[in-house]
Amino acid sequence: MSALARLTALAWSSARATAVRIGAVVRSEVVSGSLLIAAAVVALVWANSPLAPVYERMRSYTIGPYALHLHLPVQTWAADGLLAVFFFIVGNELKQELVHGELRDPRRAVLPIVAALGGVAVPAGVFAALNARTGGEAGGGWGIPIATDIAFAVAVLAVIGRHLPAALRTFLLTLATVDDMCAVIIIAVVYTSGLSLPALTGAVAGSALFAYLQHGRGRLLTRVRAAVPGWALFTPLALVIWGATHASGVHPTIAGVAMGLLMRTRTRAGETISPSEHAEHLLRPISSALALPAFALLSAGVALSGAGGFWGSTIAWGVLAGLVCGKVVGIFGASWLTARLTSAHLNPGIGWIDIVGIGLLGGIGFTVSLLITELSYTTPAHQTIAKGAVLLASAIASLLAALLLGARSRHYRRQH
């Protein structure tokens, strides 16, 4: 081997090792959550600085082909495109839980599932009640406080709850996953308009092909899988499904969830890990280091000067009360009543006060709440107020959860 070839091989090996180390760091829940927070802070500072016009020009800059309505602003690409990667991870995690995890046994899964449903219904009801007498589009934002941000909530729990029982993290993951699935269904049903049946048919057909390639058997399919790398087979198909979903009028993040749920989670002969695990290993760093921070950077830039009348707005109070109070009442109340009225029971390793802390973490509604804000309101003032309320509520919920669960972590540490 020549010296140049050896140097090239060494450089390639070093680059791969560096990429592996970076990927491992980015997969950390603490790191991914920190990137998300940092991007949101940068966006907020930038949008309220003398460089605010540059920020607005950046996120309103349109790129992409005109086919399939894909000549879009950068901000829309982040919300519709990059965020679909995050929702793929959510759908994939849910599939793994359904097949191998907590959701496999209904008796173990019932409390976090019911808690998630309570954490969706009560905040939506609180917002609707506070905006019942408000005219115009203000009342249409009832979906904003329903969703828990998995990345943020798990990151906060990882930072402050190092000594908390593992069962509590599992409870949060199951709750947040079901919570986000409810939000996805609401987006599909409530925030979809102008449905195009031909495009939707194309998206469904593409999804059926995706499922067949994942789960199908046969000599021809086996030869195709052996001859074509997985990324070369599924990436173009995923882009087609996403594009058809976008053209159909359904929010394209639904495509991400659907493909995540269609992943195969069991290994076959010759496989060391399942396609589901392999895809998550590859895409989680992209989601954590690119998709979520980019979405936060392009969506969290709320110009506070445009939030006049914030404290007098029923939109602001609906979001604040829904996320900070409604989440706790819905999550704790639904799970406590279920345990009292049925045979379901809380894991003996955790206490009900811990579920209050999980309810507070549920009030971190950052990613999906900001997305639903953009889908709910067309009036810039309403968007600004709602986004400001989401950011404030998420900060308050994080602080309260840190205080309570930090104390509980110290309690568990003393027990050991």
Automatic annotation (TrEMBL):
Statement: the UniProt record of this protein carries the keyword Metal-binding: no
- Key words of the record: Antiport, Cell membrane, Ion transport, Membrane, Sodium, Sodium transport, Transmembrane, Transmembrane helix, Transport
Highest taxon in the source lineage: Bacteria
Where is it chiefly localized? membrane
Write down the chemical reaction(s) this protein catalyses. Answer: Na(+)(in) + 2 H(+)(out) = Na(+)(out) + 2 H(+)(in)
Q: One Pfam family this chain carries?
A: Na_H_antiport_1
Compartment annotation = Cell inner membrane; Cell membrane
Residues spanning the membrane: 35-55, 67-89, 109-130, 142-164, 184-212, 249-265, 286-309, 315-337, 349-372, 384-407
Q: What topology does it adopt in the membrane?
A: Multi-pass membrane protein
Q: Does the keyword Ion transport apply?
A: yes
What the record says about family reads: Belongs to the NhaA Na(+)/H(+) (TC 2.A.33) antiporter family.
Q: What task does this protein carry out?
A: Na(+)/H(+) antiporter that extrudes sodium in exchange for external protons.
* Protein name listed in UniProt: Na(+)/H(+) antiporter NhaA
**Per the UniProt entry, what species is this protein from, by scientific name?**
Actinoallomurus oryzae
